[in-house]
Design goal:
The structure is a single chain. Helix content is 34%, strand content 27%. It has helices spanning 25-33, 36-40, 57-64, 74-84, 103-113, 129-133, 147-150, 159-166; strands at residues 9-14, 44-51, 67-70, 89-94, 97-99, 120-124, 140-146, 169-177. The longest helix has 11 residues, at 74-84. The N and C termini lie far apart (33 Å).
Length: 179
């Protein structure tokens, strides 16, 4: 169980944020599945899935026990999701990625030993020699930040741009790209 009252977060899964098109439905299910350990440990309180219409994501959301916002407009869906979530801290996660083992433990430690108001970036696993040497060159797979900060996202939402704007520290845990 969490060590302090602010150690529970809400998760928002973005299933329509890929540059090369929306994430496949099976990617979304695997992404949600990667958060199960954090849910079991009581770190993720609720989840909202945002996806495009006609992709059958509603059934995945229902099976996972999370809310579903069906929209082709990711920034609008994100604003709706931020209004729905129950916790003050939010994990934004691309449905094209799955968090690696150790995420729940790092999240627990983050909130147990830190006030938690500083944004954190969840980077993709290194995929090239350059990203192994300079991990900050890896794409941003997710962001953990207070909800009040995320409500000011503009209409040209991009995870990497948002991570640069928030200037948060990187988590040690990575997220693997689903393929």
């Amino acid at each position: 169980f969490p060590l302090c009252p602010w150690s529970m977060i809400s998760a928002i899964i973005l299933a329509n944020d890929r540059i090369d098109g929306p994430a496949r439905a099976d990617f979304t299910a695997r992404c949600l599945g990667s958060l199960v350990e954090a849910c079991v440990q009581g770190l993720v309180a609720d989840a909202v899935l945002i996806g495009e219409p006609d992709r059958h994501l509603g059934q995945i959301a229902e099976d996972a026990g999370c809310s579903f916002i069906e929209t082709a407009n990711a920034p609008q869906g994100l604003r709706e999701a931020l209004a729905q979530v129950r916790r003050d801290h939010v994990l934004l996660l691309s449905a094209s990625y799955a968090v690696e083992r150790g995420f729940a433990d790092e999240l627990d430690e983050l909130f147990a030993y830190d006030a938690g108001d500083a944004p954190r970036t969840l980077r993709a696993t290194p995929h090239s020699f350059a990203t192994r040497l300079l991990p900050r060159l890896s794409k941003s797979a997710g962001i953990i930040a207070p909800r009040r900060i995320l409500t000011h996202i503009d209409s040209s939402f991009d995870m990497d741009r948002l991570a640069r704007k928030l200037k948060g520290a990187d988590l040690a845990t990575r997220a693997r790209r689903l393929s």
